[in-house]
Amino acid sequence: MIFFMCRGVVEILCHLLQSFLFMRIILQCRLREKRKYFGIILALIIIILMIGMQTENRILYLTLLLTINFLIVAFCFQGNNLKNGMIYLSSEFAWFLVDLFFSALLIFLEKTKVNLDWEWSLGSICTEALKVFFILFIGYHLKISKKEKVWPRFVKKLPIYYYFIFVSFLFFTYVAVLTVKISYGLKDNPTLSQLLLVSVGVLCLLFVINGGAMLMLNSSSNFFQAQNQLKDEYIYAQNQFYSEIYKGDLEIQKFRHDTYNQINSMKVLLRDKKYNELEEYMLSFYNRVQKAMKQKIESNNEMVDAILNHLILEGKEEGVPIYLLGSFPEEISVNSYDLCAILSNAVSNAIKLCKEIPESNKRHIEISVKNFRNTLSISVANTVGKIIDSAFFENKVWKEDISNFGIGIRTIIEAVERNGGEIEFKSHENRIAIEILFYDVIME
């Protein structure tokens, strides 16, 4: 009895360690900052194990094991508990399938009957220990290859209903394989065996068709949403462009009218030989002209100029100076509307972040445009009030509530990818930057 209980506890602890390491090393889920949750989990594990040690029921042990795993997911890791739970459940069903397929293969090779009696064995403990070693082995090689963030980001970006479909698919696959095992054990009753196989096969086929249809409908919906969002961005860019042209025309008309009046005033001063007053008047007029000229940016692209000049005025109202270094080539294959969408969203987000800096003299936005070897480089850098991890942007992009920064960053990424470019988010101390590269886009 004591030996049985010890083996059960060891197997459960191995399985718990396996689940924890899978979430932490493979998926790289972040742990909660409050360590008190770990103490609560440890206390619950001890209580549940003490309850489970009082019985030899295998089903009860499995239920307790699953309960502890979900408690670990809910209390130890950051993020959406439901999504983390679905990720964990997907990994669990995947492990079950591996074990089940291996067991079915052995049964087929050995031509033995199915034994549905679950028994504790040292073999199961060794299996759990091998899984722990396998996770550590994969995690080590992911870290060595410096690609450890690619897979976790892909997993976290997937919508939660994908996990519902995936878990359901794994469950039906598990049932189907289990059915094959059971039907193999019913060789004495071939009619019942065939009926069982056909029924489960039809159910699995219906599920596959339904799941495929749901994914296709979702992909179509996402495509049309992206297209509508892109059209909205284009319309906004066009409105801004024509609005700035209209404002420019008004400024020119006003400047012409004011210039005519100013010249008349200077003629009067000159006629009356008031040279000192005339000199002061001309200096004042010159300073006004210089100030008006400094407000304009010339990037060699009219649409970009219109957007940036509008954003410069917006930044000036918020106390955020914006500077442009460099200019665009005369002819590039990148869509002008996409350039406007990239710069307007990047600079707008930069203004929002700069506004959070209490000291106005530390607010600064720098737009850099460089051309080299047929490659166009665009960088939007700004100061921030606190250190921000570059992963901030990826997390914002795919969160469900995209009312803050997410929709702007996602628009930038889609516009860059649409033109075959690359984008990178960098963070260093109190400065963050969005760096974009477009290859083979300069037309000679």
TrEMBL record:
It comes from the Bacteria. The chain crosses the membrane at residues 37-53, 59-77, 89-108, 120-140, 160-184, 196-217. Keywords: Membrane, Transmembrane, Transmembrane helix. The lineage of its organism: Bacteria, Bacillati, Bacillota, Clostridia, Lachnospirales. This is GHKL domain-containing protein. InterPro entries: HATPase_C_sf (IPR036890), NatK-like_C (IPR032834). It comes from Anaerosacchariphilus polymeriproducens. The keyword Cytoplasm does not apply. Residues 335-438 form the Sensor histidine kinase NatK-like C-terminal domain.
